[in-house]
Amino acid sequence: QTKTSIALLYDEVSENAYDIRLKLTKEVLTIQKQDVVCVSGSDHSANHRTVTLRRQPVGGLGLSIKGGAEHKVPVVISKIFKDQAADQTGMLFIGDAIIQVNGINVESATHEEVVHLLRNAGDEVTITVQYLREAPSFLKLPLGSPGPSSDHSSGASSPLFDSGLHLNGNSTNTAPSSPSSPIANEPKYEKRWLDTLSVPLSMARISRYKAGTDKLRSNAFEVLALDGVSTGILQFYTAQESADWLRAISTNISDLTLQNMKMANKCCSPSDQVIHMGWVNERLEGTDSSQLYKFKFLALKGSSFYIFSTPPVSTLDWVRAEKVYNLCEVLFKIHKLWLADDCWLQANLYLGIHQDFDLEDQRPYCFSVMVGHGKSHYFNVELGSELAVWEKSFQRAIFLEVQRTGSKTYMCSWQGDTLCFTVDFALGFTCFDSKTKNVLWRFKFSQLKGSSDDGKTKVKLLFQNLDTKQIETKELEFQDLTAVLHCIHSFIAAKVASVDPVFIDSQSIARKYMYSN
């Protein structure tokens, strides 16, 4: 199904916006601009049209003009009156820029100069025009075809007034002249929407923010293709329209990503499937208050969480990831949702660790992925629905990896002894001597009643003895304590999910938000 709508294309350099038409299909977003095209007859000069108008006693030239050099725009035809001189030629259109009047070039003339020339040009006026494809929106030119309906463009709605040339100028001839009618073999012209840019949506990304800042564009966004080609800034007349288009384009990008995942998964073993992938913005480390973000492409595949600067297109691309982490050793955490009433919701996940994040930035829909050695990545997505999908996908990918792996063993030490600590999906926790392999202690997941750590290498695990009901404290030291704590979290969460999936679903912050809205 194709979606179309009139929008504006905003030019940041000139700060002007131009009328465009958007056309969205499943795979492509196309930007169209209006132009005048020759539909029959021989068109010798591709862009310029030269038309002779005969001034009529009633109605004059039958057109109005706007613009001029003082406004940094050419003089353009802003109205054409039905059945009058300009309309009868069939060769003039609203939006045509006047280039010459009776052979005199007026491209850099002021509004008044062109009005004076046209009013005093005699009964036959020959004008050369070229359609202005990028007419700034401040000209308020109607997009419709000529006729009474186009009169909704009143001069008062624009900073530039129409000068009507449908009134009589200095006509020497008082007898009615023959109408300006098109000659049989003259070329015929039509105003049409023409494709000017097509952006493929496969692996495309959307940005609502001004480049490198936290400033959210008002009712506007840009779409960037995989090869970096941008639509430019698409501006909409209402917030509702902007939201509708953002959702529609996002949905099509997601559907194509799903297709790409299915294709990739055909070449991968069952244990190495892509669970989810897509674009996010990553907050750069050590950035100041202006919060710099960079586009990153994330993927959850097999046992790993990947961070790319550009999406993996072929199987060989998977080795080119900037970072790869084992899924058992990461912790996903939602930070921020933007509620309908614009207040922030600080969301803490079940069994959340390290709640000391700096949440000063102004972006909604943020999540972080904490990794080994106390490090973390802070991400932002454009829509709440995307946040819900990432939350669900991380859970699923981690649970699958825990069940596939079954157990993880880490080297640790206590009081000079080198020990091994195993987290096992079926058995729980086991600690044994690395040399003799003698089991020192073993507890089920349900026996773990608490833990505390020094934030560096040491952790205390508090277990309840099933017989005595007493709490036993086990102290261990790890090289990468964060990875071990995340692993314990992953295994316990996966265990809970296998026993009580409804409980895990009830912990979904993002989906709760989605439903409440």
Q: How many individual helices?
A: 7
The CATH homologous superfamily of the domain at 1-38 and 189-267:
Pleckstrin-homology domain (PH domain)/Phosphotyrosine-binding domain (PTB)
Helix content bin: 10-25%
CATH class placement of the domain at 1-38 and 189-267: Mainly Beta
Shape: rod-shaped
**Which structural class fits the helix and strand makeup?**
alpha+beta
Rg computed from alpha carbons, rounded to a whole number of angstroms: 34 Å
**Major beta sheet, strand line-up:** 18-17-16-15-22-21-19-20
CATH topology assignment of the domain at 1-38 and 189-267? PH-domain like
How would you sum up the major sheet? 8 strands, antiparallel
Chain-averaged pLDDT: 83
Total number of beta strands: 29
Low-pLDDT runs: 145-159, 167-182, 338-361
Give the end-to-end Cα distance, rounded to a whole number of Å.
27 Å
Give the DSSP E fraction (strand runs of 2 or more residues).
Answer: 35-45%
Oligomer: single chain
| CATH architecture annotation of the domain at 1-38 and 189-267 | Roll
How are the SSEs placed, and which strands pair?
Elements: E1 3-11, E2 16-24, E3 28-40, E4 49-54, E5 63-68, E6 73-80, H1 85-89, E7 96-101, E8 104-105, H2 111-119, E9 124-131, E10 163-164, E11 188-200, E12 205-207, E13 220-224, E14 233-235, H3 239-266, E15 274-283, E16 293-301, E17 304-308, E18 323-326, E19 331-338, E20 344-346, E21 366-370, E22 376-380, H4 384-405, E23 407-414, E24 417-424, E25 428-433, E26 439-443, E27 448-453, E28 458-464, E29 471-477, H5 481-499, H6 501-506, H7 509-516
Antiparallel strand pairs: 1-2, 1-14, 2-3, 3-11, 4-9, 5-6, 5-10, 7-8, 7-9, 12-13, 13-14, 15-16, 15-22, 16-17, 17-18, 19-20, 19-21, 21-22, 23-24, 24-25, 25-26, 27-28, 28-29
Helix pairs in contact: 4-5, 4-7
